[in-house]
Amino acid sequence: MIEHLEESSRSLAGKGLVMKYIPGKKNAFDALEINVSNPGIEPIFIDRFPLFRIDKNVFAELFFPVADRENIRMMFYNDSANSVEEFFHNGSRPFLGLPQRDSDVKGSKSRLFTILYGEGNDPNGIFMGAVPVDKNRIFCTRFELTDESFSAECEMGIKILPGERIRLTNLLFYSGRNLRERLEEFTRFFGTSRKCPELGQNAGWSTWDYYLWQVSEPDVMENIEELKKNKNLGDRIKYIVIDDGWQHAYGEWEANYKFPGGMASTAEKIKAVGFTPGIWVGPFMQMCNGQIAAKHPEMIIRDRDTGYPVTVDDGFSAKFCFLDPTHPETISFLKKTFLKIKSWGYRYIKIDFLFFVYDIVTNRNGRLYDETKTPLDAIKNGVEVIRDAIGNDIILVGCGGFIPEVGTGLYDSCRVSFDISSYWSNNLLVCRDLALKSLFARNVWENDYDFLIVRGKETAREKKINVYEDMNFFMPESAYEPFALRKGATIQTAGEARVWASMLTIAGGSLVLGDRLKMLNDAGIAMLEKVLKYSSGRPGYPVDLFKAEMPNVWRKEEADGSVLVAVFNWEDSELDFSADKLLKFVGKENAFEIWGEKTLSFKNGLKIPPRDVLLFKY
C-alpha cells in the first residue's frame, strides 16, 4: 500500500519543495513519515499540502476483493477542531456510492483517521491515520472522498523559511481484521494521558442544560439542597459546576448581578456544604464591544488582508471575536484570569469554544501573531498557559476542543460530543457520535459526555424542558433527519430517557447531572440513582461498530470481573433480537436486567420496545 501512496504523493509535490519519505514499522501499523523542505531562497507560505490522491475506483480495485467492492463503507471521524457542523459527520457511508439512508454520513472529509471496510461482524478493511511527529508543530490531516477520488491533505497555514525542513506527520496504515482494536491502538499514539479515575467515581451536577444563561446563585443552592436530601445522589456527587451565565460578559470574567456576593463567595458556600466548586469559562471568547477589543485590539485575531477583527455570530444578536493565543498580551491575560479563578476556590474548570481559533484562522482568513504556529499549535499554546496557571491539582475539562493532538496530557477530561438535550433526534445524533469516540476513553483522557439528563413527560413534573424552550433554542433546519439538533418531539417516554441514561452507564467516563432535581418525579430520580449505582467510570465500547448502521450492542468489563451489556433499539418499531445474536454478544443464556430488576432468559430471543434499551449485568 505504501508504494502506491508514495507514487501518488510524489506526483503532487509542489515546485521548489522537496518531500522526504521515511517508511517504517510501528506496532501493527506500517508508517510513512512525511517531511517538507524549502530549498529556495524565499519563505513559502503553504495553506494546504496534498499527501496523496488516488482514483477511488482504482483504490477499491487495488485493496479489496471483487466480492467486497460494491459494499465497501468508509468510516468518517470528525471532532470540534473545525466547527460544530463536523459533529454531523461522524459515522460511515458507502465508499463507491452516494449516501442512501438517514444513518449515512453526508460529509466528505474525515479528520485524523478513516477506516474502509467490508461486510461482516469482523470485516476486512484498511485503517489510515495521521499522528503528529513534532509536538511543538501540530498539523491537521484530512482524508477526503469525492465523486472521482480518495485523497488526503495536510492543513498547514504557516510559512516555511529557506532551508527549513518541516516534519508534517506520520501516516499510519493497516490492512486486515480487528479494526476496532486498531482504532483503540491508534488513540495511544497521542502521548501520555492524565489519569483521572476519580472523575468516574465522583460525579457532578451542572447548571447547564436546564438553566442555561439564566442561572443564579439561588438556583445552585436549591439543587444542592436536593442533593443533600437524597443520600443515593449526594454521596456520589462531588462537583457542583456553574456553567455559562455567571459572568459579566464574555471576556470579562467577573460575576454578574445573579451572583451578588461574587464568585469567591459562591465557591465558599458550595464548599461549606461538602461539595467541590466548579466553573465554566470561554478563555478565548470576547465580546466585540468589550473592554479587551476596545483597549487591546492587538490581542484579537484579525483578518489577514483587511486587519479588521474576525467576528463570529452567535445566532441571536451578539457578535464575538477571539483572542490570539500566540500573542504575549493574551498569554498574560490568560495567566491572570485563571490565577484569579483558582484564588476564588474553584477546583474544577471547564474551558469551552476552543475550536473557534482553528476555524477563524483556517476558514475565515484570520492571521496569528506568531505565523510559525499552526492553528492547532495556537490552541495548545493557550491551554498550556491555563494548565500552568491552575497547576496539576485542579480538574481541567476541555469543551469545544475534542482535539487529541491538543488536549492529551493537559485535559483531565474532554467533551466528546455535541450538547445533549431533551430531544430524541438530538440524542440519536450524539449516540451515533459516541460509538466512534468511545475508544478514546482513558487512552487519551476521560471522556465527558456532556450531561446525564432524564427529564421528559414520564420522568418530570414540569412541562418545560429548559428556561429557553419558547425561543426554539438551537433548533435549525437540518438535512440529517432523524439525526438532528433539537428537532421534532422532546423526550416522551421513560424508555427514551432510559436510552441516554444507559449510554452514560455503559460508555464510562465523567458523569455530570444536568436536570433541575426538584422538578423530577419519582421515576426520574430513580433513574438517576440507578445510573449512579451502576456507572463505574470504566469505558465500554460498541461491539457491533462495523456491523450495524447504529451500533445496537455495547459491552463493558468491570474491575470486579462483572460485565455490563446494553442492547439498544433506536427504531420506531419493536426490535426482535434473536437468541443467537444475544448469546454471541452477551455470552450467557440469562442475566439480570437493571431497569426491570429481574433476570431474563435469552434462549428464545428478546423483544425490545421502540426507542428503548435493555441493560444487563452479570
Task: Give the tags.
single chain, 618 residues, alpha+beta, 8-stranded parallel β-sheet, 7-stranded antiparallel β-sheet, 16 helices
Count of separate DSSP helical elements: 16
Shape summary:
globular
Strand content: 25-35%
Unreliable spans: 475-480
Mean pLDDT: 88
Helix content: 25-40%
Through-space gap between termini = 44 Å
Radius of gyration: 24 Å
Give the neighbour order of strands across the main sheet.
25-24-23-21-16-13-12-26
Biggest sheet overview: 8 strands, parallel
The number of strands is 34
**What structural class do the secondary elements suggest?**
alpha+beta
What does this structure look like?
With 618 residues, the protein is of the alpha+beta class. It has 16 helices and 34 strands. Strands 25-24-23-21-16-13-12-26 form an 8-stranded parallel β-sheet. Helix 13 (424-437) runs parallel beside helix 14 (494-507) and helix 14 packs parallel to helix 15 (522-534). The chain is globular. The model is unreliable at 475-480 (pLDDT under 50).
Write the layout of secondary structure elements.
Elements lengths: L1 H10 L6 E9 L2 E9 L6 E12 H8 L9 E4 L14 E4 L14 E3 L1 E5 L7 E7 L8 E6 L3 E12 L4 E12 L2 H9 L10 H4 L1 E4 L10 H13 L1 H4 L2 E6 L4 E3 L2 E4 L7 H10 L3 E6 L3 E3 L3 H5 L6 E2 L8 E2 L5 E4 L5 H17 L3 E4 L3 H9 L2 E2 L7 H16 L4 E4 L5 H4 L5 E3 L8 H14 L8 E3 L45 H14 L4 E2 L8 H13 L6 E2 L10 E5 L5 E7 L5 E3 L1 H8 L3 E4 L4 E4 L4 E3 L3 E6 L1
Parallel strand pairs: 12-13, 12-26, 13-16, 16-21, 21-23, 23-24, 24-25
Antiparallel strand pairs: 1-2, 2-11, 3-10, 4-5, 4-7, 6-9, 7-8, 8-11, 9-10, 14-15, 17-20, 18-22, 19-20, 27-28, 28-29, 29-34, 30-33, 31-32, 31-34
Helix pairs in contact: 9-11, 10-11, 13-14, 14-15
